[in-house]
Structures are given as structure tokens and as C-alpha cells.
Design goal:
9-stranded mixed sheet, globular
């Protein structure tokens, strides 16, 4: 969620509109099962594509706060590793009043996050490039490109060369087709990418139209139970 400019103190929380949009979707959204180390922020991302006959694909993403010490949220171990400019920006108090949700968002930015950890994707007429393995590869590469730029030596600016040609990219050849994933209390067939040094990815085909994928930084895996459940349409409890 990126906010620019000066908003009036009564500006509406954009999460409310997105939550209403997601509740109107004709399919269920999946998230990680409730657990002490994770906090669902009700921060939903929605992406979609349309054709002449209406929507062709819709993806809903979930963001979580990661608590390394869930028993004490004030423990410094829960803080994110921020660069100096980001820390200064968060510490700077503007001379104008801000909406409460922006104040809360700024506070949350100090803590470790799992950005776009879970994706639920509905596709009206899936093609090969929208298959489960391809969607998992795309999700893994998105997280690598956006969360591990420094570790991978990715320069600022647009990528050079053909898409997918970067040496750090996950590829279909890395997908293990014989994984299992717990969804709503039952194990289902899944695929995984367990070869990348920075992230682990797993996903499942839940119907002919629904794919769910999960990508977690390896450093955080010991803190997380990798199991999914249908998310309450009313949002996090």
C-alpha cells in the first residue's frame, strides 16, 4: 500500500473498499491458518485481468505481520531491518494530522512482514502459462525481485535482457510435482520449489479454476506452520 500527498484526517481507509471488493468475489480466499507468529492485517491486494466477456483472472494477496516473539510484541527481535532513510521517514512526525489508519500503517512498517505471502488466483479459462507450476514460479520470482534485490545483486531500474533470463530466476525445472499441502484440515496434492536459497514456495490446484500459492522467506520458515484455511470473508478476527 503506497500513499502519497497529504490526506485529510478523515480520509477513508482503503482497506475497507478492497475488503468489500473481495467479499463480492464468487470464490473463496485462502490464507495461512491462524497461529501465534502471524497476524493477518486485513491488508488485501487485488489484481485482475479482463477480456471482452468480462473478468478472465483475479488474484487476491495477503500480507502478515511476522512475530518472532509472539509473546512480547515489544521485543526488538520483532523489528524489521530498515535502512536509515526508511527509519528516519517513519520517525518523522508531519506537522499535519493524519488519518488513524495511516498512523497505524506507519507503526506496522517497523515490524517484520510477510509481503504477498499467499495468493489465491481464479482463472476463467486456464491456459498452460496459467497452470499451477507456472503460477508458483511467477509468485516465487515476484517475491525474489521485490524483497531480495540486494541479496541477489539486482540493480535499480528495469531488468536487462529478455524476461526470465536473469540467473536468479526460478524456473519450471525447479518445480517438484510430488509435494503435499494441508488445506482446510486435509492434505492435498501440491507442487513446491525447494531449491532457492532465499525462499520456499508451495502451491495447490483446488479446483479447475482456483490455484493457491504460498512463498515464504527461508529464514522465517521455522516460525510458521505451512497450512492453509479458507479465510473468513469478514476478515481477520
Amino acid at each position: 500500500m503506497w500513499i502519497s500527498g497529504v490526506l485529510p484526517p478523515d480520509a477513508p481507509d482503503p482497506r475497507i473498499e478492497r475488503a468489500e471488493m473481495v467479499r463480492a468475489l464468487p470464490f473463496s480466499i485462502y490464507g495461512l491458518v491462524p497461529q501465534p507468529s502471524l497476524e493477518d492485517l486485513d491488508s488485501l491486494g487485488v489484481m485482475g485481468a479482463r477480456g471482452s466477456d468480462g473478468p478472465t483472472q483475479t488474484t487476491v494477496t495477503l500480507v502478515y505481520t511476522l512475530w518472532r516473539n509472539p509473546d512480547d510484541h515489544d521485543d526488538p527481535v520483532n523489528l524489521a531491518e530498515l535502512d536509515e532513510s526508511t527509519r528516519e521517514a517513519l520517525d518523522r512526525e508531519p506537522p499535519w494530522p493524519r488519518p488513524p489508519w495511516i498512523v497505524e500503517f506507519s507503526r506496522r512498517m517497523r515490524y517484520r512482514m510477510l509481503w504477498e505471502a499467499v495468493r489465491t488466483t481464479w482463472t476463467a479459462d486456464p491456459q498452460e502459462y496459467q497452470s499451477l507450476p507456472n503460477q508458483l514460479v511467477q509468485h516465487v520470482n515476484y517475491i525474489l525481485m521485490n524483497r531480495f534485490r540486494a541479496e541477489l545483486g539486482i540493480p535499480d531500474g528495469p531488468p536487462n535482457g529478455p524476461p526470465g533470463d536473469e540467473p536468479w530466476h526460478a524456473r519450471l525445472s525447479a518445480v517438484n510435482q510430488r509435494a503435499r499441502l494441508e488445506v482446510d484440515g486435509h492434505e492435498v496434492d501440491a507442487v513446491e520449489i525447494d531449491t532457492d536459497p532465499f525462499v520456499y514456495g508451495i502451491g495447490a490446484q483446488l479446483s479447475s479454476e482456483i490455484v493457491v500459492t504460498v512463498v515464504i522467506p527461508r529464514a522465517d520458515l521455522p516460525l510458521i506452520r505451512l497450512a492453509l484455511a479458507t479465510r473468513d470473508p469478514r476478515g481477520a478476527a
